[in-house]
Design a protein that fits this description.
It contains 5 helices and 10 strands, in the order ββββαβββαβααββα. The protein is of the alpha+beta class. The protein is elongated.
């Protein structure tokens, strides 16, 4: 039993899960099945239990509401606006995740009526302050993608250079020259050509893979892109 002399806030966790489907960057949302904001879309998350860490709570809520589990998540910010939750004083610890969509089947559960991927530029109206959370997550993503090889978490083991370029363009909001982008990425030394991909009657394209060992050898004190 826990007894406190002074009022104290409740704590929730929320997961901002980005996915890549081969051509678009998407965000995983759930439709709330309970009040407040019943019927509105929100990030997967909920109240943290007394016997778990924030990361454990985030992973539990993500699995309960979307069926996704066993993924890498990282904490990126704590949101503490006084009136962010109409029920009571609640602060939330937000986590980032980057996954390949085809590896996971999304199934709504617990108090989520639905679970669904949305293109990052076509998000519905959101509950709580989740729009602010997503905005900060995207800013974090833009920073991280220039310093860490996070784009490759959104790709299959083998991928095309066009898919890599698509991720960078969508995240950074820029358009890159195809030839220059290809040259710059292959010059890094850890994006390795592996095989040729058939294009019907046209010229076959090259498939690439990310060599994490070479990345670790070369990337110290350098930018990814």
């Amino acid at each position: 039993m826990y007894t406190y002399k002074y009022p104290h806030p409740a704590v929730t966790t929320d997961c901002v899960v980005f996915g890549f489907d081969g051509s678009n960057l998407n965000l995983l949302l759930i439709e709330r099945g309970i009040e407040p904001f019943k019927g509105k879309w929100a990030l997967p998350g909920g109240f943290m239990n007394m016997d778990e860490t924030a990361e454990q709570g985030a992973m539990r809520e993500l699995q309960e509401e979307t069926s996704i589990k066993d993924i890498y998540i990282e904490q990126f910010h704590t949101f503490t606006s006084v009136k962010r939750d109409p029920r009571e004083r609640v602060l939330t610890i937000a986590f980032l995740a980057f996954i390949r969509q085809e590896k996971y089947e999304v199934i709504a559960g617990d108090d989520a009526a639905k679970a669904q991927w949305f293109p990052i530029d076509q998000l519905p109206e959101l509950a709580f302050d989740h729009k602010d959370i997503i905005t900060m997550a995207l800013d974090k993503l833009k920073w991280k993608i220039t310093y860490e090889p996070i784009a490759f978490r959104l790709l299959n083991k083998t991928f095309t250079m066009t898919q890599v370029q698509t991720i960078y363009e969508v995240v950074l909001g820029q358009t890159f020259d195809r030839r220059n982008f290809h040259k710059k990425m292959t010059a890094l030394g850890y994006i390795i050509p592996t095989e040729m991909q058939s294009r019907g009657s046209g010229r076959p394209g090259t498939l690439f893979t990310f060599d994490e060992d070479k990345y670790k050898e070369q990337i110290e004190n350098k930018k990814v892109f």
